[in-house]
Every structure is written in structure tokens, then in C-alpha cells.
Amino acid sequence: MKQTVTKNGVGAWTERKYDVEKAAGTLAFTDDLRFGPELLHARAVRSTVAHGEILSIDFSEALKVKGVVKVVTGKDFVHRFGLYLMDRTPMAIGKVRYMGEPVALVIAESEEAAEEGMLKVTAKYRELPPIFDPVKAATDNSVLVHPELETYDHVDFITPFPGTNIGNWFRIRRGDVDKAFSEAEYIVEEAVNCPQIAHGFLEPHCCICREEPATGDLTIWSTAQSAFALRDIVAKGLKYPLSKIRVIAPPIGGGFGGKAGMTVEALCLAGAMNPDVRGRPVKLHIPREEVLLTSWVRQAYVAKIKLGIDKDGKIIAIRNTFYFDTGISAEYGANPVRSAGYSSTGCYYIPNVWTDSYAVYTNKPFGGAYRGFGLPELMGAMEVVIDIAARKVGMDPIEFRLKNILKPGLPTCTGMPMNNHALDTIVGKVVDRIKLNEKEPATRKGWVRGKGFALALKAPAMPADAASSAIVKILGDGTVELLAATMDMGQGAYTAYSQMVSEELGIPIEKIRCPYPDTQSHPYDWQTVASRSCWSMGMAVKRAASDARQKLLALYAEYWQVEPESITIEHGIVKCRKKGKAEPIDEHIQSGFPMPDGNYKGGPVIGTGSFVPPDVIYPDAETGQSPKSVVHFTVGAVGIDVEVDPATGAVEVNKVSAGYDVGKAISPMNVRGQIQGGTVQGISAGLMEGMYYDEHGRLLTPDFTDYKIATALDVPPDLDAFWEETPEELSPYGNRGVGEHSMISPAPAMDNALFDALGIRIHSYPLGRERVYKAIQAKKKGETDLWEYPYALEQSYKNAIKEWK
Amino acid sequence: MKRDVHFILNGRPVTFSVEPRTTLLRALREYGVTSVKRGCEEGECGTCTVVIDDLAQKSCMVLALEAEGKSVLTVEGLVGPKGELHPIQQAFVDEGAIQCGFCTPGMIMSAYAFLRKNPDPTEEDIRVALAGNLCRCTGYIPIFRAVQKAAAVMRELGHIPGRAR
Questions:
Q1: What global pTM score does this model have?
Q2: What is the ipTM of this complex?
């Protein structure tokens, strides 16, 4: 019998936690915290060349600026940091590797003085030849971004190649691809590329660090998605005990991966831990135009995919080559490369697989975690190539996809059986809602209309031992404090957790509070990334709440002298119908119950829960095979209906339909929010986003004037977001991750829609107006494909295609 | 050299002592009104939007000294005396129009100034009115819904609470 009753449990549409404070403007973000007149401000001085030896840094003039306290350089703070590969220093030491890399940090009494000081620092360089083309960097070792790669520590599951620019090489080897290709009726070989893109969170990075002068204890307040991962990375880099580092993570203004791991904190520590500064808090607020030069962006990629297809339209072999342009650091970027690699047959069952996925160093700002984590890159190419293949084979693209679909139980490319899902149903709904099989006339005069479709899939990409833990405290008035160190950055984690606690404890959601992470009070959680939180932390929260319930029931059972099974908790009232008892939870729950024998029992009721995925095994380094490489895959589909103005290349989206199999929607309001928000972010990326550089490596698109993201005017008038619920076996409530998935496939669906509208295939993202216009002009000249690869060797991928007749 | 500037902040007369180069955004934040967010300080993102004499303006593009004699309204100023949310704020909460919340104060202030001029807008009107306020989380769709809902609530009320002076 279920012993709890609540209105706002799992699956309820309910108000989101902290929205009232956010609407009132009173929720304090990191930049809103106050530290008094002791606070110092830091500003980075940045390199003006993309690759060069530092000959000298002259900051004597900066020290003359009123208010400047100290200038530190890379040599003053020699520590390497990194989540998976310790290739990052907060400031350049001896050599700069990209234009914009910090070479010094000016610390001053005010932001204005720090800025003035920054402008007075000069550095001299002996320039070295830079490398920007990821294909060239991967295949030609004449310029090495990290000649010291051999000396960097890294986790076992990534494989850097010293003496090259390869920061990680992930492989899949299954079956005999050469034999399968020789037997195939059709060979399709295509390439797709995409530049780096930016997260575009509205809150720039901000961090305050203070070292306690007497003990060396560090406190870090930061715009961090993952307080504990940040603490781990800082501790490893500084060789500091974990217990001497406290990370406080106030609410953050958007993350999307861009505030995962460690971002700007080490740079701030370089100031705060300086002997002349120690004891005073140092604040580092990154100005908007430096955000993309300071921490990671999404990696650029060049993907080549070769398919072998039999006469019935079954894909029998695939050969993938993915070059991820990771810029100067692969410390985090090594892992999306792996994530794309171990998902590299997409949503399809393909028996023979050969995949090489590379993280390639270049002299650009660096790539790392971004919503979708390797999968928007993989699917951005895969779903376009599948569309091309279907047309070559002469099949309807939907029929071709369904014929090859990765049905539950079939092996993924790493050999693990695919989990249960309702992808067939989702495909059917998207096709219907977008009227994919119906050619409709354009609604705008003189425009042309097209429809496109793409599948999506993603697993949480994380180490096998990514653990979570939670504490549920029932307070003396029947309210609850839940300590779960997930960062609620808008996705609604605290609402979902509160719904879980309400479900397990029968306490109304209004009485449940979930404070923002502080490593000093909260128990450990690996990271808020990978769409893992509602699942992994969800397991811990459910266990903690159940533990608290069991303790509460045992105490009331003895107090009332009844069986625990006869007690219920209904809307915060503890009841025993048999005995006619009904009491609100009161101070006994924290002070102890006076039992019939005259003794007090209990004391504060605290439930605890821990979780680590029990059965994930790293893929074999040579073959990529594993009985269970990841915890589960969430699948979905996107359909897009677009119109194009042939005169200008303008693209307008009429309608989008996007559905995902979430297993169970814990918090439907937030699931809808994630699907809608991610879909618009995906359309924005697909239509208009890209980071561009001049020939010297200078970023041309540092801020929102030059780096456009979707505004209110760019949102489709009709966005249908839906989900199916095929339960996941190992899961708190059957739920699977969904936060990232909506970002994955709008771009390829758009590419396919543009092909439908225009009859020419665009191989380069974004699908901006200028590029679409060029495609229209190329089509008039009889071209069938448009590529715009920025670098020379990337261009060679044009030759990848047309092996078929 | 600092100079004094006098204006009405959320209905209360205030005097700030500021450098001539200090923006209204920085002055308000320094004073403790931190709902005005620093998203870019370049006039691009709209997170610092305030209403100055009925007009929504990006406070990073206004010098503090320019506020002399004016009325400046921030999102804190929309909250009623008993802590009750303004209908626009409430609609944002009800409709799931908030995710991270960083754009929310500026977005609400743009909506406030807009609804005072256009109490019965179409969705297209709303899109144009909010085009200067970026949001990366929600995809804007629930925001459009919230503004429409707030407009309906205020038409029913017959007036707009928290009127700027």
C-alpha cells in the first residue's frame, strides 16, 4: 500500500521553485553578492598573437595606476588543471597558444582601476606559425600546439597522442567494414562541417576567491554548474586537500555546459592566492566581449561518414571520421569526442562499424562541454547523410530510417543492447504533425517551402563512476530541507526533486526547500551535466526521502504503538486510521518522541541516499566494445517546415514538431520548458550561429552584436513539444534524461528541409541567409551541393563524395 | 570627480554620488538594486532594462547623471507593499516563462512599459516589443504567453498596478 498522499508529486504540473524570487528580482546571483571594501577586482591581460613565445611582459606602468595593487603573470602561478586531461594553465607560461589567452592578471581596488591597469600592460612575443585548420593539425605535425602533451596527466579512458595535435582518439572497430563495403549495393560518402558556437548564456562568468591567510583554506564563490567537480579540479591542480576548499555556487544565469567543470576559477585564484593579496577576496567578472576567449565554446567539427547499403536498403557498414576542433585545450573537450564516438551509428543498427573520433588541438579558443555534448555534432552530420543516402537508394527518408532503426534490444555501436523506447510512435507523430508527406505551397508570395526531419539520440556522457548523494532533513514544523548539489540553472531540477520528495514523504511541495550548492553543507554530486541529474541525483533523492520516511514511520509506530504499515502521511499530516490518529508533523521530528516506556527516542530525522551507476564498463580502447557503455539512451525526432525567399536567402520556420521518449516526465512544466527552449536554441545554432576568426586568429564575433542568437522575432509561430513515456528500468521513476536532447537535431532537420525546398544540399552550418543565397545561386549553375569550409585541408573533404554512380 | 544625481527610484527620492562616466546600471547595482543584471554592458542583451519615465531603457546605455529629476523603475519596484507580485511577474511564474531567471527582470520591465502603451497586444506586437531582450533558456514561447495573460489580467483589473510616475 502506498503510504503517502500529495497533490504535487511526481508527474504533477506545478509552480517552479525560486521563480517568485526570480520574478521579483531579489534572487542573488554571483555578481550580486557583496563583500565589502576589502574586495579586490581582477582583469586579465590577453595575448595579441595566436602562437608565440613570450619574450617579456612589462607591467610597470600598470602598477602606477591609482588603485592597482598587484599584477601577476603565468610564472607566478604554475599549476595545471583539467577535468579529463590536465592541459590547461590559467595564464600562459612562456608561450601563448591563442589570441586572447590571459598572460597577466591585474588586481586593483576597483573594476575601473583593474581595467585601466590592464590597458597599460604590454607584452612582447616571438611569433610562431599558428595552426587553425583542424584537418591539417590532425594530419601534419609540423606545428604542435602542445609539444609537452606527453607530460600531462589524464584519465585512463582518453588517449592523447604525444608528438601530434591529437588530444583524444576514440575508436570503434566492429565486424569487417571493408568486406561489407565490397558487398554493398550502394556506397554513400559525405562530409559536413560546422564552426565553433557559443553557449550564449546571459550571465557572464563571475568568480570571487579568498584564501584564509592563517590556514590557507580557500573559499570560491562562482558561477559554477558543478560545485564538487570544481572543487576536485582545483584540489588536483593545486595539490590541496578537498577539505580545505569550499565552493559556494549561487544561482547561475544559464549554463548549457559553459559553466561545467572548472572555467575561470583558477585564473581568479592566481590573484587571490598571491602572497601580496592573500586574505582579501578577489573578484573576477568576465566582460561579455571576453567570455568566448576565457572559457570553452562548442567545438567546431568536420565529419566524414561513409555508408554501405544493401539492395534492400539496409545499412550494412559505416566508416566515420570525426575531427573535433578543440582549440588549445581538450581538458573537457576530449569527452564529447568520445561521446560522439560511442554513439556513432546514431539511431540505427549497423553491423559493421569503423569510427575514428579525434580531438584536435588548434590555436583557437578552446572547445568543451555544450548542451548535447558531441551529439549535435554527430547528428548534425549523420542525419544529413542519412537523408542523402535515402534519396540515392530511392527510398523515402522516413521509410529508410525506420528500416534501419535501432530497435530496443539491438546492439548499439559499442555492442550494448538498446534500451526500450517508443521512437516509432514519435516518428509517426512528427510526420503527421508536420505533414511531412504532403507538399504544401508556400504561404509567402514568391517563396519556396520545404520540410525536413531528423532523429536524435543521446546518452549521459560521464565517467562510469559519476556518483550522486542527497540528504533530506525533516524540520521541526514539518517542512523539509533537501540538500542535493545539482545546480538548478533554469532546467528546474529543484522543482523536480521537490516533487520526488513530496511523492515519497506526503509533504506538500510548498513545504520543501532545496538550497543552492555549497560543498560545506551539501553531500557530493559529480556534476550538473549530461542530462543526468533527474536520473542519477533523482535516485539519491528518492533514496534519501524513502530513508527519512522509514525513520519517521518507525518513530510514529512506536509512539502510537501501531504497525508502521498502518500509518500514512497525507499532505503533511501523519495518520493512523485504525487508532483514529491524525497529527501534523511537529517538533518531535527533530527533538525526539516521548515513548510509552518513558524514554525519548529519535532526534532529528535525516534521510540519506547515495547512488552510483552499478554496471557501466568503459568501452575497450581498441574496439570500443562494452557490455554496457552508458546508462541509457534517450531518443527523439524533430520535424521542421520552412520557407525560403529565393531572392534573398531568408529562411522562416513555419512549424517545428519535436518529441522525445523521456521515460517519465517527473515535472511536465520543466520537460516542456527543456524541449521548447532547446529546440529554439538548436534552430538558432542551425540558422545563425558561428564563431569566426580573421587570418591571424582574432575572434571576429565576441559579443551579441556579431554573434547573433535567436531573439523573440526568430521563434517559430508554432512549436509542438511532446514526449512519450516508455519507462527506463534502472531509474527513480522510469525517467530518462531530456535536458540536452532538444538541442541535437533541429539543425540537421533544417538542412534537410532546405534541401526539400531548394534541391541543393548545404554541407556547412550555419544555414544563414548569405549561405542559403549562395546555395540558390549555385543551384542555378547546376550545382547539387554547397560547401564552405574555411580552411584548406578541410576543403579536401569536398572530394569525399560521389563514389556512387 | 563625483557629482550628485537626484531621482525617484521605485517611488522613493534618492541621491547618488557618482563619477560622470558611471552608468545607471553600475550606479543602481552599487546602491544595492541588483535586479538590473550585467549581461553585456554593451546594450545588446537587455538584462539591465529599467523603465525611465515610462520608457524601457537599457541602463548600461544611460549615464547615471542622465537620470536627474526622472523616475526610474526596476522590477523590485513592481512588488506590492505586502510582497504581492505584480500581474506581469505572476504571469511569468504561472506560465513557466522563467528558467534561469537572469533575463527575467529586464524582460518584465520591457513588458511593463509595453503593456502600458498597448494593453491589448497581438503576439506579433509582443515579439517586436521584446526583441531587444535576449533569453537563451525558454525559447520565448512561454514569455509570449505570460505577457498575453498579464495583459488580460490587467484589462480585467481596469488599471496597471505599480504605475511609473
A1: 0.97
A2: 0.98
